[in-house]
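User: Please predict structures.

Assistant: First:
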Amino acid sequence: MDFNSYSEKLTKLRVVSRLSFLDDVLRALTPGERLVLYALTILLGASVLALLAGVNSAVSVTIPAAGGSLTEGEIGSARFINPILTLSQPDEDIAALVYSGLMRVLPDGTIIPDLASHFDISEDGTTYTFALRSDATFHDGKPVTADDILFTVHAAQNPDIKSVRRSDWEGVQASAPDAHTIVFKLPHSYAPFIENTTLGILPKHVWGNVSSKEFPFSPANTHPIGSGPYRVSSVDTDNTGSATRYELVPFVKYALGKPYLQNITFIFYPNQEEMLKAFDARKIDTVSGVTAGDLEALNRKDFNIVRVGLPRVFGVFFNQSHAPVLADASARAALDAAVDKRTIVRTVLQGYGELLEGPIPSGVLGENLPAEPTPFIHTTSMQNASTSTYADAARAILSRGGWKFDEKTGAWKKNKLEFSISLATADEPELVLTANSVAEYWRAAGIRVNVQVYALSELNNTVIRPRAYDAVLFGEVVGRTADLFAFWHSSQRNDPGLNLALYANSKVDTLLSQARATTDKQAREKLYAQFVSAIAKDDPAVFLYSPELIYVVPTKLAGVKLGALATPSERYLNVYDWYTDTDSVWSIFTDKIN
């Protein structure tokens, strides 16, 4: 027998000997003693397991995990999933997932590099230099180079393509010193320009041979290839060729990290009624842009909502050139004082909006705190002052301003002027309801008003563009960076400018010009504060409200954060952080995972 065999045999004998000893001990115990021993053994084992579970819980954290899916309903169909051609909401929503730009906006309003690795701005604010990430790629595996950025910008600038983003790039000279560097030269300093670089980048190898004339008809518009967090995996169409369903999956090489959700599906419906029916039937998980009334009517209640302000200003803008009565300061002040804005927010927006006292909604300037999903709460009533309170305030202002109320004619008069105006607006339910509400408040103060409702295209072409109105109820998309130049600078009084109040104030002109050229955020906000004060003194408009976007999401969806959105499609700004599945790992390993 060799040494190894002997050692193995000796070990076995020792084990048998120990087991025999334990057996002898157990035999020596009474049945009651053995029962106690067994119970203590089980208790010890349970205690050890509980201790281990406690330790595991204390040192473990829950983290997002890959998995899960999301199905979203859309009204209409997608035809131009192209960042420089998007027309419809489905176009913009899918493009926001498929494409990425040099920079990306976060829900809190900060702007970070996306396809770019870093950038520099010259001291005079006119030259922006971007360096591309060396590993940036499109969904088809081709690298993103400076040529792709130049191609996209030139396409946006091309008047024959008629890009919706053309105005963002007018006068900008783009060049590429090498394959990974892009330089933009501006004709003058323009602080909001950095946001323009969030424009989704088109792959030149896909679009380079498409003529301007054929640009809107290219199949690449409906089968897009970008570099964003999600790529299109399949498209379903009907017998007319219109898309009925889009399936998107994560792009594993996305610059800011692979998204968690493994599938995002878009299903298209002809109208909102059909979309909400599908949501009630659990055929889709999310819907966007619904009203509080829509939510109240749903039978399904297992959802959360995210409500967030849109940087839009709805108000009544006065054209003093068209209606001489509006040139009187007391008349404009009375029109503003007569309106109960809080009640309009409650009745027209059903509480989902912010009343305004000036041209800049909250969340645009200063700190922006992103909103997160919360349970839907039924609309509650809000306390309001009586209509007579507002009417009395307006009457007092008119009396102090030299106006006298003629009891016989039922009209305010001053010298040879009679206080009577028309109010124009678009044939949209929300605008019509608002216009009629405003008119009732004015009539309660004795002010004569005639509401004129036009189809949107007619309002734009025959009323707004030629400035053929006394007062117009309309909305302005202020945007995240609050470039108010187009809305209030005197140079923008005529078409295609957007100064609907035909407002002219040299001090305001100076403030707006300085603000758009100032890159320092705090300095820019001080300039805008002075601008708001100047506007308040002149009453060129009745600022009414800023609406909120209501986004319905499943209760299981986490990671959703919405800030002050420039457009509804920006609800996807942090889509790569959304998740439904989680893992539990020890905290010491989280740094390695991140």
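Second:
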Amino acid sequence: MDEHTQIIEVAVPLPLEGPFSYRVPEEFIGRLEIGRRVLVPFRNKIRAGFIVGIGGSELIPSCEMKYVWDIPDEDPYLSPGLWPFIRWIANYYLLFPGLVLKTALPPGSDRKSKPWAIITPEGRQRLKELADEIRFLPDKLIKSGSMLRSELLAVVSKEKLDEAVEHDWIRIEERIARPRISLRKKNLPELLNPIGTSSSCSEAPHQLTLHQQAAASTLSEAIEAGGFQPFLLFGVTGSGKTEVYLLAIQETLAKGKRALVLVPEIVLTPQLARRFLMRLGGGIALFHSGLTPAQRLDEWRRIIQGKVNVVIAARSGIFVPIDDLGLIVVDEEHDPSYKQEDSCPYNARDMALARGKLQGACVILGSATPSFETFLNAQRGKIRRLDLPYRHHAGAMPTVELVDLKLSKDQEKKRAFLTPRLIEAIELAISRKEQVVLFLNRRGFDTFAQCRSCGHVFRCPNCDISLTHHKAGRELRCHICGFSRSAPPLCPECSNSKIFFGGVGTQKVEEELTLLFPEARIERLDRDSTRKREDLEDILDRFRKKEIDILTGTQMIVKGHDFPGISVVGVLCGDMSLHFPDFRAAERTFQMLTQVAGRTGRETDSGRVILQTFDPEHEAIRLAASHAYEDFFERDSIVRRELLYPPFGHLVLVRIEGNVEKRVEAKALRIGRAARILKGESKDVMILGPAPSPRRKAEGRFRWQVLFKCAQRDPVRKLVKGLMAEGHFKGHGLKIIVDVDPIDLM
């Protein structure tokens, strides 16, 4: 029998194409709204889906389409403009829209149903009659009236349960849990002030430099005009980029629009949030993985309800449901943390530009060391460049002194890369009651453990790297998968006791500093010393208050912190990231060295940087020391142009992962053969591999990869799409990741 019915399109957060059509029971028609969560039958389960389209009343054969099971009485999860953005991302990155939707949603919003055992009225009656045949039911089920079927089967046999169902004492029903609301307290309760309430705005706008005035004026005109306009705010470290962001945000709010600010690391959010609160007052939301799932869901709800006008977020914030978006700021846009590498690869920096274009918003990409992609787009006129070439206090950039570690005297007596020149600089700073930052991008005490007798190196059984020695507890730990074991007294290969611990990590640096400077207050900032979020904030707060004299750490100390008391920055070994098998290695090294050098001299001209290196003539080292970004860009671009590496070419990386290396290798070889057959005689696309990944094994999974490279974007996308259409990226027991515009080739 045919009937007229209301039809809706529902997106389900699964790795599927979608959306899917469902009929709507009459009692739910008044609650239809784009973005609202619905519960629908899907693959023998009740699943959460989201309305992305509402059709008219159509004549549909009743047997061909399922009905919506329920529409919870909740606010929408998706704003109307978010689904088109998700579809755009899926198309660009060659992903299923449902997978992107799952990535975008806050935790707890996409649950599937579970079978529950529910006592029926007939069962209640039998319980009142104290019938023997129903006394097997546990007290928990009798008191609550319902219980997860799996929990019930843990205390009751399946035969007994089947008998109760057959007699209609119990029925089994699919139910889906509803996300709970967070009642959390935040470290920054002022963020909860709704829009329009008065919060103390204790910070007045700073006195602007001429270049800041020019940048702010240009951005003001763009925001006033409306529409998509992208900018690169290219400013040296300490030039006052944040002040320009704040002025642009205030201009956006005055226009009745909202702003999204992306930062590369969670560690930056408290500092930035406090700065914004001092200027803007309430109505600010934080959104990042450091929050609990309930907190993230709560922030998501506040955003979509319009209770906030500025969102500060890590990369996942690119999906927050804001339709009246007037401005997107991507701070430190060069940072690789904006790229997600797992089963749903995307780059939040690039997606900020895409979302700005879709929603007609102004986009600011800010950095002292822009990514090559962004800088080339600025050169070609696709992005308008705004320069802040001087520090806001009009002082000079810090003096960078190169120290050649090969020529340093007393090589054997050197203590954790602490050369005489660096020790002298630290002593002088401490005597003047100034602060020191020491940078070494290696955690732990020693970076490897090796037997001196047979040469055996202790390696992680799950990953293709050596284990790092952590002196506390005499522990060997993997910094990829977290595997750990105690350091054995004997070599497992030859039973010799000559175990040697080599290399230098931040823990060893901290210990040596304590011996050299017993009167100094010394702290370490890395993933090991800040396992709890409050530990991180405590260290940064004490350093800001000058309760710490020497702070040593990994790249966490590079990430945009503004501490005016730092007079000396020591880079203990500037070569750590230079010789990786990756065409971006020099770019990353230059960026990291420039950023860490920029931590000093931010309010005076007294900043001094001691940059220690084994390769002082390398262009990345030498040009970072002279703060010559554009010279470095031109020099490093020569090779990239010739080899068609980004930004002068386009890459798609296909990585095959699995527990059995022979199966991974066989699948990679089949993909490589199929790609070359499909490519035919065309010379547009180069196929590199298949070959083992530079990091051959990670987290227990073997990894092979095939890299596709092309001068133009369309031919390489067409080839990869062809392989997908022919089913070559499917494999039982294997994980195959298609990474468009990869950042990490390891």
